[in-house]
Amino acid sequence: MLENSAGLGQLITIFIMAAALGMDAFSLGVGIGMRGIRLLHILRISLMIGFFHIIMPLLGMFTGQYVGLLLGKVTGYVAGGLLVLLGGHMIVNAFRGGFAKPVNHRSWGGMILFSLSVSIDSFSVGVSMGMFKSDLLVTILIFGFFGGLMSIMGLLLGRKVSRNLGDYGEALGGVVLLAFGLMFII
To answer: At what angle are helices 136-158 and 39-71 packed, to 10 degrees?
Structure first.
């Protein structure tokens, strides 16, 4: 029974982290949605973001497993430190306007660049998750699902609301990652 409750706790943690990472796609999606976007482009961009939210944490998890073997007992501190740094970076960027003007989302190259840019953070989180030996398939599928879902929500919402919401969404995602990083360290 203890093992099942630990597994449920890990699953909840993965869901929360996936949603926090998806806030990046959500916040930038709001900005792109405000510039005007067709439903077909929303679908294409969201599928591509979901794909990159699978590939990047997968690569990160493999890297994290290797680093975990090298670091041994200090793995938890390093993984927590990565999450703290990533969360702090997201918070700072949200309020200082750290993102450049969005790329042309209508071209395939622009969609790939945009999808990759909002998925880069997933690599770092994947490294942390790899150090904790989380379930590989479950983790990457949840990350991909939330990346795609949050981008759809941001793009659709961007068609209807103001630009300020995007900054707060990214900051919220950063706070969640920062909190998990501190939890792993403590």
So the answer is: 140
Nearest to 146 by CA among 1, 14, 10, 8: 14
CA distance 92 to 88: 6
Domain ranges of the chain: 2-185
Tokens of 157: 């919402």
Distance between CA 119 and CA 22 in Å, rounded? 8
Rounded CA separation 44/90 (Å):
25
110 contacts 41 by C-beta, under 8 angstroms: no
Summarize pLDDT for 29-84 with one digit per residue, the tens: 877 777 778 889 899 999 999 999 999 989 988 888 887 777 776 766 776 777 77
